[in-house]
Write a structure and sequence with these properties.
The complex is a heterodimer. By secondary structure, chain A is an all-alpha fold.
């Protein structure tokens, strides 16, 4: 038996025994690459995800809502920070990871390529988008790579708080005027399908699922998570009087879950490929932030160097 | 209310509390514009933190102002249903963000003043104002430290950063004098020792600012003409746009819950 095969067997045995893989442990190249791709995509999604909600900070309708939204967007920046750090444990610097986003090489969640048009979108994003993210992320708290799993424990706690806030915004609107109800339903109509597309392509089309499940990076398939999300969300929508924009949605007694209509995968792949309504604007916003901030980062390093030199000189003197 | 106030004093006090609240709110509003666009993730987070603190202070102040006004108004009525000429914020804080350096200088000049003001205000005979000042000062100390450190870093960083931040200082300086020119409400309240005399804070402010600018190898502008008007509701043209954006939902759909 070659030593390589032996290492791979030991690695898989650890995974099977639910022992976490840590940064210094041996891991197959493909495992490392898959994690780098997945965690960096996740980090980028947090950072790009700040933009659609940031769009409403200056227009939030009350001081309380403004503060809550600012805190939420700030949490997302924090999540980005933990996740970039988790990627760094796999040997890629934060700068490199960010450059991959800015050059368009790395992807982020397509949901953030949709525009936020009304205040109700803040409710829909919190409730549906964070809700779908939680479905995806709760199992990641037990993912096989230690630093990722630990980052996700903290992320999930905050996300569930965000989801409740989003639902509460929707509930308040649905208890309000006819115009507010209309605003909430319109947001529901626009965000429902993109939200259920967040689970990714259907299992038969998903190239990454099988290996990722074997490595316990993923613990459920895309379709399983999507079904779980729909089953959890439909009663929440009904409770506040919102209609799900799917005429084929129906409770299926035999399978104990909802049947739902066909997903528009053309739209999904188009947004992934860059043709969503805001792909260009989101990437430009990140590029501008990075480029306009270059002189600040340079100044900070120059100053740190000067200080280090001065303290050495002081010690010598 | 801890003491029975004369009507004039009551009016002056509510105007003064509104002035403090408006200033914090407009600055927080400007800081919100940075969220997601900062030069580096850690500083994006730091700016949001400051924005959150300012919003918290704003809310305490409006709640107190609402009590003083006794017109059954809420904090949101005061923030969302008053117009350009009724807002009493300093001109300094309504200035557009500019680059990161401009934002830093604006913050630094304001927080240096706030630190001096709140240190006095927490000794006020008005216990409610004193309590708000005491709580806010803890946050302000952090804002001051963060902004002063950035002034030094950018001033003593690269040639580009030095020339950028010096330019920002020269441009914004004209809005710094207003803090020390008391309006009628401030004069009245200072005369009965509810608030400090703001003019008397100027010397300490100049000293503190000079110390930081010296360390940053930057030059303090001299003898510049000082703009004023914010405290009496005569603003720069920027404020109208800030309010139009901030208040639009409350204006378009009056008397709704959000």
């Amino acid at each position: 038996m070659s030593p390589q095969i032996n290492l791979e067997e030991q690695f898989q045995a650890k995974i099977d025994a639910e022992i976490k893989i840590e940064p210094k442990d041996w891991m197959p190249d493909a495992y490392r690459k898959t994690l780098i791709r997945q965690i960096s995509q996740h980090a980028h999604s947090e950072i790009v995800g700040m933009l659609p909600e940031g769009n409403w900070l200056t227009r939030a309708p009350s001081l309380k809502r403004k503060a809550t939204l600012l805190a939420k967007v700030q949490d997302e920046a924090g999540h980005g920070l933990y996740l970039y750090s988790a990627v760094e444990t796999l040997g890629i610097s934060r700068l490199q990871t960010i450059e991959d986003l800015l050059s368009g090489k790395a992807k982020y969640s397509s949901i953030f390529n949709y525009p936020t048009l009304t205040w109700a979108d803040m409710g829909a994003i919190g409730w549906l988008v964070d809700g779908a993210a939680i479905m995806n992320q709760v199992p990641l708290c037990r993912t096989s790579y230690g630093p990722y799993a630990r980052a996700m424990v903290r992320v999930c706690k905050e996300e569930s708080f965000h989801q409740r806030q989003g639902y509460e915004i929707m509930m308040t609107l649905m208890n309000g005027s006819a115009e507010q109800k209309e605003m909430a339903q319109d947001a529901m109509n626009r965000w429902w399908w993109p939200a259920i597309m967040m689970f990714g392509p259907t299992d038969s089309e998903s190239s990454n699922t099988e290996q990722s499940v074997k490595w316990k990076i993923k613990r459920h398939t895309n379709d399983e998570l999507r079904q779980k999300f729909i089953d959890a969300t439909v009663p929440q929508a009904e409770y506040i009087g919102l209609t799900i924009p799917d005429k084929d949605l129906k409770w299926n007694e035999a399978k104990g879950a909802y049947d739902f209509g066909a997903i528009n995968w053309d739209e999904f792949w188009n947004v992934v490929k860059g043709n969503g309504p805001c792909n260009k604007q989101r990437l430009e916003a990140r590029q501008n932030a990075h480029n306009n901030g270059a002189w600040v980062r340079e100044a900070a390093s120059a100053y740190a160097e000067k200080r280090a030199k001065r303290s050495v000189t002081a010690e010598v003197a | 209310m801890n003491i029975a106030l004369h009507n004039d004093t009551q009016v002056a006090l509510s105007n003064y509390v509104l002035q403090l609240a408006d200033t914090n709110l407009i600055l927080a509003q400007r800081i919100c514009e940075w969220c997601g666009h900062g030069p580096v993730l850690e500083q994006d987070i730091a700016l949001s933190n400051i924005g959150l603190d300012l919003l918290g202070q704003t809310r305490s102040l409006y709640q107190y102002a609402a009590e003083l006004l006794d017109e059954d108004k809420s904090e949101d009525d005061l923030a969302y249903l008053r117009s350009e000429r009724q807002f009493k914020n300093l001109l300094l804080v309504e200035q557009p963000n500019g680059d990161f350096g401009y934002t830093i200088v604006r913050q630094f000049l304001y927080e240096t003043f706030q630190q001096l003001l709140l240190t006095e205000l927490k000794k006020s005979s008005n216990t409610q104002l004193a309590a708000i000042a005491e709580k806010s000062l803890i946050e302000t100390n952090y804002h001051y430290k963060w902004s002063a450190e950035w002034v030094i870093r950018l001033g003593d960083g690269t040639e580009e950063s030095k020339s950028r931040i010096q330019k920002s200082i020269n441009e914004i300086w004209t809005y710094s004098g207003e803090m020390f020119i008391p309006c009628a409400a401030e004069q009245l309240l200072a005369s009965i020792s509810i608030i400090p005399d703001v003019a008397a804070l100027k010397e300490a402010w100049m000293r503190k600012v000079k110390t930081v600018l010296d360390e940053a190898t930057l030059t303090m502008p001299e003898n510049m003409y000082m703009q004023q008007g914010g405290k009496t509701g005569v603003h720069t043209e920027h404020l109208g746009y800030i309010l139009a954006e901030m208040q639009y939902l409350q204006r378009q759909y009056p008397r709704q819950q959000w």
